[in-house]
Design goal:
The complex is a heterodimer of chains A (382) and B (389). Chain A is of the alpha+beta class and 382 residues long. Chain A contains 16 helices and 9 strands.
Chain lengths: 382, 389
């Protein structure tokens, strides 16, 4: 493995260069941190990735638009539904397709459920990185299973959902599904309370997380960081509010903001975001209308995807994915395939601030900081 | 009633005596003495291995329950054969030695680590008259032998030529030596009170009140027990003090480069240490095998079992400390507390009973609060999060 040149002076003999990853239990996939240590203190850190590069963009440029949808599932495999959402949004913008009312509601419901799944999984994994041997993670997974059961019932798959279509969604939510979702929402606050009782005021957790890995608001903005990491630094920027895409501007919800931008803030902002997602879900379930789930104009393309030829032009569709701003940039030249297709992956861009947050901290902290950024290598490397 | 109890109490002792008497009919005396040693040795070796195997099962079962899952339940009834299946798996695994490793020391480390783990069993009083060797310096022997464990861990980590192992080894050396100090000092009040270093004598010193005159029921005993148990948890590298292994940071710490049976030996030593340390804690502070109604060995194993369950409970619920926090806790908090505890024990010895209770409790509580106050370099911040629309 080639060595990564460090910016700092590497001559001192006390320095220990060590590679965390690509095979390491806590780098959340095949991610490598080339770390320079002085004792246990981190003096240099270079994130190295690309081990999971799958040529996602090139593949997408050689496929019909509709056939790219299942590939987007594989980007951030923890929440495939929001990836679908972003891509559908971009192509609909390109083709000028409207989405029926009921489909919009279904999209929002599924996306918010995916956000909850992602956030509890992230908190669980972060606690695992802290050394809490799987207990919080499995408590989180108990609730995650219930939501995944709904995904399975509605979309036919637990993880790789492939659920969104241009101009609508694949399947309708039945009354039974809606009732089941209502039940989950009803029991979720009790779970969150249990989770918080165990964690939020835990002395060791506070000791390990507070004032660790601080990212100031200015640095976060300069690095282009988005999502909960940015909001934990105290910047009020949520694309659901800024763009109000889909029907998000109809719901009453708030954006939780941190103050310091440390690991603890990132942890707690996520918990608060789960609460806000529950709020959105409640409103969406109360208001969901009856009706079509697919735009009539888009129906023929389901059977014959090669006939779907958006007019020449370009579009950028972005959503607030649980990890940050997930954007899809699509350029059409009038053929069935996109001429250019690019993904703005929040996992990748949020990683750029990793070195800044880790310098001067201990090894153990670096792992936790990485966990608090919340990356998925499928999305980072594409 | 008493006779039945006495029979069960001494069942293992009389079995051994009967066996030796049987041998004595045919063989000369020196062979019988040798046989007595061999019997004790074999029992300890077999028991150590069996205890380790079933501790792994117990740990996995309990952790499973803590984490709302079942734990192993496929091999045999209630997964009772799981440890044997694990053992077979470990034996058949490939034994990997890294190319750059120091081969001899790499081989030696897992062997050396098991030896002290077995040696501690020698002085653990499993029941009335059931100490393998009733040394009059039993406690000193225990402290000396248990501190050897640091060495093989460091040998293994250094010989592996792996940076994770090296970091783990450094942490081990720092952690285990630091926690050795308060652990040893927390034992001193017990020695002062029982006026003996023999583990058997210490148990007998707690024999009043129909076997419930345990040291833990005194202020200095309680403080000593808590310190001792925390240090014991740190000594056998169990969470929240599992920095040498630190799965999420250092992959597997000092035994990253070990596979197959060598890896199993490290585990074996860890679990046997956990058992013996819990056993010694029970001996020193919980009255050892003393207790009403049940046979003495049942009391001993019951108390040890409960302490081990507490250790497993720790593992299931606590996040890990960081290195600096860990060392600070040992040197700045536990060490002064044990020193004060020794003073309190001396006061207890010289004052009349009621005054002794009052004074020692008062001094311990006050010093505890002062120490906590002095040690707080970190106050969990109460944070208010704004919700903006």
């Amino acid at each position: 493995m080639e060595t990564i040149p460090f910016s700092k002076n590497t001559d001192t003999a006390e320095m220990l260069e060590i590679n965390f990853g690509p095979q390491h239990p806590s780098t959340h996939g095949v991610f490598r941190m080339a770390v320079q240590l002085e004792g246990e203190k981190i003096c240099g850190l270079k994130p190295v990735f690309g081990y999971l590069h799958r040529n996602h963009e090139q593949i997408a440029e050689n496929l019909p638009y509709a056939a790219v949808m299942p590939y987007t599932d594989r980007l951030d495999y923890v929440n495939a539904l929001t990836n679908n959402f972003g891509y559908a949004l971009a192509v609909e913008k390109l083709a000028g397709l409207e989405v029926p009312e009921r489909a919009e509601y279904i999209r929002v419901i599924m996306a918010e459920l995916a956000r909850i799944v992602n956030h509890i999984a992230v908190i669980g994994f972060m606690l695992n990185d802290l050394g809490a041997f799987f207990t919080p993670l499995l408590y989180a997974f108990r609730e995650r299973e219930r939501i995944l059961d709904i995904f399975e019932g509605v979309t036919g798959s637990r993880l790789m959902n492939n659920f969104f279509r241009f101009g609508g969604v694949k399947h309708d939510l039945t009354e039974a599904d809606l009732a089941e979702i209502k039940k989950i929402i009803a029991r979720f606050p009790a779970f969150l309370k249990e989770f918080e009782d165990l964690l939020t005021k835990n002395e060791i957790l506070c000791m390990r997380c507070q004032n660790v890995g601080i990212l100031s608001a200015g640095d976060a903005i300069n690095a282009g960081i988005t999502g909960p990491v940015l909001r934990a630094s105290g910047v009020n920027y949520d694309i659901r509010k800024v763009d109000g895409y889909s029907i998000y501007n109809r719901f009453d919800f708030q954006v939780p903001l941190g103050k310091k931008g440390d690991v603890y803030d990132r942890y707690y902002v996520r918990i608060l975001e789960i609460r806000q997602s529950l709020k959105i879900l409640e409103q969406a379930l109360a208001k969901i209308p009856q009706g079509e789930i697919m735009n009539k104009k888009a129906l023929p393309y389901l059977k014959m995807p090669r006939n779907f030829k958006p007019p020449v032009g370009e579009a950028y569709g972005r959503i607030e994915s649980p990890k940050g701003e997930l954007g899809f940039y699509v350029v059409s030249d009038g053929t069935p395939q996109p001429w250019r297709y690019h993904v703005r992956a929040p996992s990748l861009i949020n990683l750029t601030a990793l070195e800044e947050m880790c310098l001067g901290q201990k090894v153990a902290d670096a792992i936790v900081i990485l966990g608090s950024i919340d990356i998925v290598l499928g999305e980072t490397d594409r | 009633m008493n006779r039945i109890l006495g029979f069960f109490d001494q069942i293992f002792v009389s079995a051994k005596a009967w066996l030796l008497a049987l041998l004595g009919r045919f063989l000369p005396d020196w062979v019988v003495v040798l046989a007595s040693i061999v019997i004790s040795g074999v029992v300890i070796l077999v028991m150590g291995a069996v205890i380790m195997m079933y501790l792994t099962l117990l740990e996995r079962k309990l952790l499973g329950r803590i984490q709302n899952r079942y734990g192993p339940n496929r091999v045999g009834k209630w997964g009772l054969l799981q440890p044997i299946a694990d053992g077979i798996k470990m034996f058949t695994k490939e034994d990997i030695i890294p190319a750059n490793a120091d081969k001899i020391i790499h081989l030696l480390a897992p062997i050396v680590i098991v030896v002290p783990a077995f040696m501690i069993f020698l002085v653990v009083p499993f029941g009335r008259g059931m100490t393998a060797a009733n040394l009059n310096i039993g406690l000193l022997y225990f402290i000396a032998v248990s501190s050897v464990t640091t060495l093989p861990i460091f040998m293994g980590s250094w010989a592996s030529r792996n940076k994770y192992s090296l970091l783990g080894g450094m942490r081990t050396a720092a952690q285990m030596i630091s926690y050795e100090v308060p652990m040893t000092l927390s034992v001193v009040p017990v020695i002062m009170m029982s006026q003996s270093l023999s583990t058997n004598e210490i148990v007998l010193a707690q024999s009043g009140c129909s076997g419930l005159h345990w040291f833990i029921f005194t202020p200095w005993g309680l403080a000593g027990f808590i310190v001792f148990f925390l240090c014991a948890t740190a000594e056998c590298n169990r969470p929240p003090f599992d920095l040498p292994e630190a799965e999420s940071e250092l992959v597997a710490g000092f035994h990253t480069e070990y596979s197959g049976m060598k890896f199993a030996l490290f585990y074996m030593a860890e679990y046997m240490n956990a058992f013996t340390l819990c056993g010694i804690a029970a001996t020193l502070f919980l009255g050892g095998w003393q207790g009403p109604f049940l046979p003495s060995w049942a009391w001993f194993f019951g108390k040890t079992f409960i302490l081990i369950c507490v250790m497993i409970w720790f593992r299931g619920t606590f996040p890990r400390f960081r290195v600096d926090q860990l060392m600070g806790f040992a040197w700045k908090f536990l060490l002064p507390l044990t020193l004060i505890n020794i003073l309190v024990a001396a006061l207890w010895h010289f004052l009349p009973p009621v005054w002794a209770w009052l004074w020692s409790a008062l001094i311990l509580v006050i010093s505890f609060f002062i120490l906590v106050k002095l040690n707080i370099n970190f106050v969990p911040e109460k944070r208010v999060y704004t919700l903006e629309s």
